[in-house]
Amino acid sequence: MSRGCAIGLDFGTNSVRAVVVDADSGEEIGTGVWNYAHGEDGIILKSGQPLLARQHPADYIEGLKCSLKDALQEASGCDAFSPDAVVGIGVDTTGSTPLPVDSGGEPLAFSPEYCDNPDAMAWLWKDHTGYAEADCITRAARRLRPDFLKKCGGVYSPEWFWAKALRCLRVAPEVFDSAFTWVELCDWIPAVLTGTASPDDIKRGVCAAGHKGMYNPQWGGYPDEEFLASIDPGLAQLRRTLPDAAYDISSSAGMLTSEWARHFGLAPGIPVAVGALDGHLGAVGSGIAPGTLVKIMGTSGCDMMVSRMDEDIPDVPGLCGIVPGGILPGCFGLEAGQSALGDIYNWFVNSLQPGGPEAGTHQALTRGAEAILPGESGLLGLDWHNGNRTVLVDQRLSGLLLGMTLHTTPAQIYRALIESTAFGARMIMERFQQYGLDVERVRACGGIARKNPLVMQIHADIMNREIEVVRSSESCALGAAIAGAVAAGRYECFGDALARMGATTEHVYRPDDANTGVYDRLFAIYSRLHDVYGRKGCRDGLYDVMKDLLSISEAVKEGIAPL
Amino acid sequence: MSRGCAIGLDFGTNSVRAVVVDADSGEEIGTGVWNYAHGEDGIILKSGQPLLARQHPADYIEGLKCSLKDALQEASGCDAFSPDAVVGIGVDTTGSTPLPVDSGGEPLAFSPEYCDNPDAMAWLWKDHTGYAEADCITRAARRLRPDFLKKCGGVYSPEWFWAKALRCLRVAPEVFDSAFTWVELCDWIPAVLTGTASPDDIKRGVCAAGHKGMYNPQWGGYPDEEFLASIDPGLAQLRRTLPDAAYDISSSAGMLTSEWARHFGLAPGIPVAVGALDGHLGAVGSGIAPGTLVKIMGTSGCDMMVSRMDEDIPDVPGLCGIVPGGILPGCFGLEAGQSALGDIYNWFVNSLQPGGPEAGTHQALTRGAEAILPGESGLLGLDWHNGNRTVLVDQRLSGLLLGMTLHTTPAQIYRALIESTAFGARMIMERFQQYGLDVERVRACGGIARKNPLVMQIHADIMNREIEVVRSSESCALGAAIAGAVAAGRYECFGDALARMGATTEHVYRPDDANTGVYDRLFAIYSRLHDVYGRKGCRDGLYDVMKDLLSISEAVKEGIAPL
Q1: What is the mean pLDDT of each run of 10 residues along chain B (563 residues)?
Q2: Rounded to the nearest 10 degrees, how much is the dihedral formed by the CA atoms of A416, A420, A422, A428?
Q3: Does A527 touch chain B if contact means CB atoms closer than 8 Å?
Q4: What residues in chain A have per-residue pLDDT under 50?
Q5: Same-domain status, B64 and B207
Q6: Which residue range is the domain that position B395 belongs to?
Q7: B474 domain residue, yes or no
Q8: pLDDT per residue over B490-526, tens digit each?
Q9: DSSP bridge pairs for A441
């Protein structure tokens, strides 16, 4: 077989990364990164609305052009590379990041009328404005379609497709009415690359559809119109624009158009794989397999497992989704996650910056935190600064820290914040195990996994597991490239592709016996706080405390006396 | 009557203040301050033992000399003043701050053997090392002498006399055995001034004895030997060195010695009033009377009320003491307080210093906090960074903050810390009221009351009360001077003395109707957290969480695996 390359395109929260990968070895031979130009680090915010997070789709197009050009440029410095060697392209994006498009498949934000309207842009995964709408969908499903909920952890999240569409319908009906349909970003990029002009022809990926859109072949695809109409007739109308079938990443979404081929100096007709969410393709790039928990550790956290489809799998409360083919074709994909991980450490450094610009850096705080023994500070936190995705599926939760004395130091708080995220990670792992999904291996990728030994050692100690850090710095883009290679027919199946192209192990963090005992005790306390604040069942519990404070805050900001 | 002056000596946590006051008008005509030389701001700490806080008694003598010399020097610039005009001297100190003394009344710390031994120094009020010993005393009293507890809020505090003596007995028996007796600082200073060499002759003040030493005429003074022996025979031995009677501040402890008179250029034989605790004499200086709550707001907080002795008064759970003559002769004195107030704001500024030395100041944070509406931040805290004195009487509690998001700012946290202390203040006021002590007026003194309008307005809004700030910057020393004037016979009674010498009102903070409603709601949430973490009764409560974390921390620091 001749030498071949695959391209992976990874549309992240703040930037696009393109990689050119050797389709035989998985070696990255070219990389390009482009930071989004709009808003704050690519995120469009609105003052007084901390839950809002949007992106301008123009950034995606510009980012695609610039990052891939740079990646190909770098690859061209490699002797073995030639543009003709590119056999396939794969795409991953954040999600659920849906955007409203017109009948020609153009984002509404590209029209002069809507170019400055955040409601007409892409609704970024971390946008939580639709919390009331999500609640409304959860209640309707609980009443009418309980099965829908069982596959998405029991609660529909404000981060997901239908909650965002419903929120737009309610607060910006003119935008909603102007849209022909809504498309997930991971479906829209392949449509752009393959020149799929009609929204009816856009191939929807089962990954986003299943994990975020309540799509499941078991009940015939997306939720039925009757159910959606019971929430709002507008949603039923939106449903009519969605196809009946969605595809896994072994499928091709189409061929690269000659215009794009010319633009990049590539051959036209290169297959473009059906798109998927970044975490899910990151799990693929990191070598996911039954029994392996893949943790993607960045600003937020994603925890992925797969399970053979010939084995029975229970519904797991709190998981974001159990989707056939959602991660790896032929397996159930199971997704969990933490709404904030590195974002919490970044908040402490950037917003609190204890001691100022020199003392308050990650480096300085890490040095201080390394010198503190587990349990020594007396501090314990809840890692809910951006809500809780798994296992509580509740965005109306917030951060907590307790145990402060007049002697508490910034380094102690920094360590407690790291520990709180690791307790959250253990909570997720234990949930998988409680429902029969044995976690035999833990593999980690993402910026934190590769760059932060303290965070990783604390995770190994608290989870009491070896954690294998994968070698690739771009495992999402690598996963996308692998999908591109499979869609191009370079490999029979993902198993074969992963054996050749999947990321190897760079480092293993091993739990320190001196720490695991103390952390077991602290985790027991974390679990109690978790339940008292997070679950309705507790007597004298504080389930509504964080929610009440958020409601009061919102009412005050809107000038309404909270009663 | 000829012009007269009175001297007030105020031995605070970090410094001594002396004032010379016009005994007719209360006008301060001379002030002197001396900062203690030992330790950190006068407090001797021990690394790895955050609960320990001691003071070297040499600082008291040096502070007495320097501050009074300066005060007299300043007063001498006043035409009307002459050294002969000084009619009386009063003394207040922190407390319970007991020190072990030998049979000559000398502090053990003055001997070469013990001069560097913190256990032989004064055990400062905020020393919490005796928490287990306090618990032991509480349990013994609950079993054998329940009445003892009823008058001190139901729980004996580690900050108090017997807990400290017992702690010393257990951890430094050689020090305990070398001591002839233990004397409260507020009793020791008058003994020094009046040359009372034999410890048997030291007049003990009912203020410290009653509020901190379980002294009550109802059961014949200090606790009986049998009870103390049931805890430890050493305590019974200590009891035998204590007198049967204690005196209120209208009594004289004796006359100024000729040595001291010569040293200061005063007439010998000036009456020195029996000493009392600083908060209590601060309440006197601020014009305490039945129906008036006096708040002393500094690094920690003291909340004082008095009640006529001809009226029945119930036992109030959680109060530090109900003592006949404890504050004002002829009235029951009721003491409550907050273990940390300004100390919490100082911790945030000094230890966290968000944004560095310029952004992280009180001034900058106050500016930011002023712009935040009540309820807007979504934050809520528990003000227990130094434990909870009233109403839970539990030093094994710690600080808590919840509601953090990725958008939380330092100014929001600063405001939430201030609000948490004001919720704590309201909790105390409501406790007084629940037990029939109507709070008709609130008067405030101390550094925070006079210097921090934001803190005071938040207190007025949260307590929903007008707060009158007294004019004197030295209300404790003023109260001491008033006691000196009364002890000298300058006035028949404190009522007369206060009418002439008591501090006037400088400013009144009035609750803002726009804020009280939101704060009522937040206070309800604070109350729930208060009970869930602070009381044993709650089902699924978190009563042991903060205590467990402290125990784990202590075990880890001592190198013991916590199990």
Answers
A1: 86 96 94 97 92 97 98 92 94 97 96 97 95 96 93 87 98 97 98 94 97 94 97 98 96 97 96 96 96 94 94 83 92 94 97 95 98 96 95 91 96 98 98 94 94 97 98 92 96 95 96 96 96 83 89 86 60
A2: 170
A3: no
A4: 1
A5: yes
A6: 342-429+517-557
A7: no
A8: 999 999 999 999 999 999 999 999 999 999 999 999 9
A9: A292
pLDDT reported for residue B19: 97
d(CA A237, CA B120): 82
A560 touches chain B (CB under 8 A): no
Mutate to test the interface with A, among B348, B376, B420, B540 (most CBs of A within 10 A): B540
Give the span between the Cα atoms of B264 and A111, in whole angstroms.
88
pLDDT at B457: 98
pTM of the model: 0.89
CB-based burial, A383-417: b 16+ in 10 Å, e otherwise: bbbbbbbbbbbbbbbbbbbbbbbbebbbbbbbbbb
CA neighbor of A59 nearest in space, from A78, A90, A34, A81:
A34
The answer to whether B303 and B295 are in contact (CB under 8 A) is yes
B539 neighbourhood in chain A, CB within 8 Å:
539-540
In a domain, A500, yes or no: no
Which of B522, B537, B531 lies closest to B392, judged by CA?
B531
Q: Which strand (E) or helix (H) includes residue B544?
A: none
Task: From chain A, pick out residues whose CB is under 8 angstroms from the CB of B563.
Answer: 517, 521
Boundary residue ending a domain (A232, A257, A276)? A276
Q: For residue B562, give both structure tokens.
A: 């916590």
Residue ending a domain, choose from B234, B249, B276: B276
**CA atoms within a 13 Å half-sphere pointing along the CA-CB vector of B319:** 29
d(CA A82, CA B186): 90
Is position B500 within any domain? no
Q: Is residue A281 in some structural domain?
A: no
- CA dihedral A277→A282→A284→A290, nearest 10 degrees, is -100
As for how many domains chain A has, the answer is 2
Residue A415 CA to residue A419 CA, distance in Å, equals: 6
Distance, CA of A280 to CA of A454 (rounded, Å): 26
Q: Which two tokens stand for residue B233?
A: 């025979």
Q: Are residues B352 and B223 in the same domain?
A: no
At residue B480, what is the residue type? A
Q: Residue B17: give its domain's CATH number.
A: 3.30.420.40
Residues 387-416 of A with CB under 8 A from B: 398-410, 413
The one-letter amino acid code at B142 reads R
- Position A563 scores a pLDDT of 54
Interface predicted TM-score of the whole assembly (ipTM), two decimals: 0.88
**Confidence (pLDDT) at A1:** 47
- Is the same domain home to B347 and B230? no
Which residue, B95, B241, B401, B528, is CA-closest to A382? B401
Q: Tell me what pLDDT residue B540 has.
A: 65
State the best of B51, B386, B397, B402 to mutate against chain A, taking most chain A CBs within 10 Å.
B402
- Please report residues of A whose CB lies closer than 8 A to that of B383: none
Whats the size of chain A, residue-wise? 563
